Amino acid sequence: MSMFQWQVRVYYEDTDSGGVVYYANYLRFMERARTEWMRALGFEQDRLIREEGIVFAVRSANVEFLRPARFNDLLSISLDLVRRGRASLTFNQVVTRCTDEQLPLCSAQVKIACLDAASFRPHPIPDYILKEIADVS
Fold first, then answer.
1. Under CATH, to which class is 3-136 assigned?
2. Predicted pLDDT of residue 1
3. So where are the chain's domains?
């Protein structure tokens, strides 16, 4: 499960005036894939806020836009966990068109920080989450 895939359909609202996916929406698609990855591991982000007092937030993103996606394309967003820190996770994420998964449309390395929900200061990732991540890696 360190490699995870999630699919999304491109809606008209996702495109710009040129008829291609607006660049910022690739980040939205990647965010959704990371949320679905957490959900697949059994962790709901609203429960983590309520019960653990933590949130996960993007610390950095290095993104390359390689080819356009267009209205009605079915996209696959993959993520691969490449580094686990005490208070951070780093992912490689790739967006491809489902009809041609060999050609990446967009790729990114995204670092996620675990933060205290009240102070937004770094907070260690709870051990039970790290254990679950390690068990599926």
1. alpha beta
2. 46
3. 3-136
Q: How far apart are CA 93 and CA 11, in angstroms?
A: 21
Residue 137: band (very low, low, confident or very high) from pLDDT cuts 50, 70, 90 = low
List, for residues 83-116, the tens digit of each pLDDT value. Answer: 999 999 999 999 999 998 789 999 999 999 999 9
With beta carbons less than 8 A apart as the criterion, state whether 125 and 89 touch.
yes
Point out the catalytic residue in the list 14, 16, 46, 80.
16
Q: Please give the structure tokens belonging to residue 72.
A: 């009605």
| Gyration radius of the chain's alpha carbons | 16
| Owner of token pair 């051990």 | 127
Place of tokens 């205290």: 116
Tokens of 104: 């990446």
Q: Which parts of the chain fold into alpha helices (H)?
A: 23-40, 45-47, 127-136
Report residue 42's pLDDT band, with 50, 70 and 90 as the boundaries. Answer: very high
Please tell me whether the overall predicted TM-score, pTM, comes out greater than 0.85 for this model.
Answer: yes
What gap in Å lies between CA 73 and CA 70, rounded to an integer?
6
Task: Give the pair of three-digit tokens for residue 107.
Answer: 């790729």
Decide if 127 is catalytic: no
